[in-house]
Design brief:
Strand 4, helix 7 and strand 5 form a beta-alpha-beta unit. By secondary structure, the chain is of the alpha/beta class. Helices cover 37% and strands 14% of the residues. The strands form 4 sheets. The protein has a 7-stranded mixed beta sheet, with helices on both faces. It is globular and about 65 Å long. The longest helix has 18 residues. It is built from 13 helices and 14 strands. The chain has 2 domains: 236 residues, 3-Layer(aba) Sandwich (Aspartate Aminotransferase, domain 2); 117 residues, Aspartate Aminotransferase, domain 1, CATH 3.90.1150.10. Helix 3 packs across helix 9, helix 4 packs parallel to helix 5 and helix 4 packs across helix 8. The structure holds pyridoxal-5'-phosphate. Pyridoxal-5'-phosphate binds next to helix 5. The site of pyridoxal-5'-phosphate (PLP) has 14 residues, from helix 5.
Amino acid sequence: MKFPFLDLSLQHRALRAEALAALTETYDATRFCLGKDVEEFERAFAATLGYPRALGMNSGTAPLHVACMIAGFGPGDEVITTPFTFISSAWGINYVGATPVFADIEPGTFNLDPDKLTAALTPRTKGIIVVHLFGQPARMDEIMAFAARHNLFVIEDCAQAVGATYLGATHGGARPVGTIGDVGTFSFYPTKNLGGCGEGGAFVSRREEIHTRARHIRVHGSDRRYYHDIIGGNFRMDGFQGALLNVKLPHLAAWTARRQAIAQRYGSAIKLADARLPEQPAYGQSVFHQFTLLHPRRDALREHLTKHEVGTDLIYPVPLHLQKCYAGLAYGPGSFPNAEHAAANCVSLPIFPELTDAQVDHVIAAVNGF
Ligand SMILES: *Cc1c(COP(=O)(O)O)cnc(C)c1O
């Protein structure tokens, strides 16, 4: 494929010498689990959010799991989330024995529709997991107001939205996503906007008691070795990921700007009848983890693009409420029309910082030629 959907080798080739030097130092110092590299990364990453602290974890799923433990969700409790996301957004709810309850999305932003939350609310509802999908912030003002009215714990899944800004209607100033709810979670899976060379994630909270609890849970529920005050697990980030992320974090702002420039180009130059391009509402600034459009003849469009050497992906082909693992929740087709429409019509175009303008123009011409 001459115009690949994603090519991680370009970024890693450019950083090879610096990355291997950092990894070598960590290797020689045997800083394999947590340690100085991870601590440095935590401080630098927290600073991008305006926070004094963050916790490096061993995946983006881990902080979601830990957040659900800290929220106190359990058997009999319900947690509202979106059916149009990566499955991991909901796993934490299951891990603590609670039940995911879905609410439909807005068709333009692919994110939770605040007007659909009431339909999902029951006396058992304890929280909401908001996902800022494809890098686009969700409508946090409305979601936070709903959560406050019903005393719900709010977790922001920012796995795809590192660096995205929420401007909002009432907050006054711009705020990074992940700092608005009770907990923010991030993933550094290699394909994410900030990716490690392996698994990684982060947990942040404005509330110190939540941060401290997460820090203990991360290391087997202990503050002191071999003394376990609470139930924990192993959610530690490894030292190599910390070292590598320290090399990459300084580039994130430029990479994000490049993603936004590509999205701008797609948004203004793609002219395809019946296509619905992603909306960019004024309340937030997307970091364009994906550029996903909707088209009624999605499969034919994809085939056409493949013929023109343009890589695409279907993100996501099946909404969560129709996944086999959730058959027990007994949602049928038709439960969430917007999520189902998105799954049936979506196609994602190449968008990564190393794409050249010429490549982007080729993608545009190929789409417009359909
Ligand atoms: C990638 C992703 C996760 C999980 O991250 P891992 O690091 O793969 O565990 C969670 N939520 C969303 C929306 C994601 O895209």
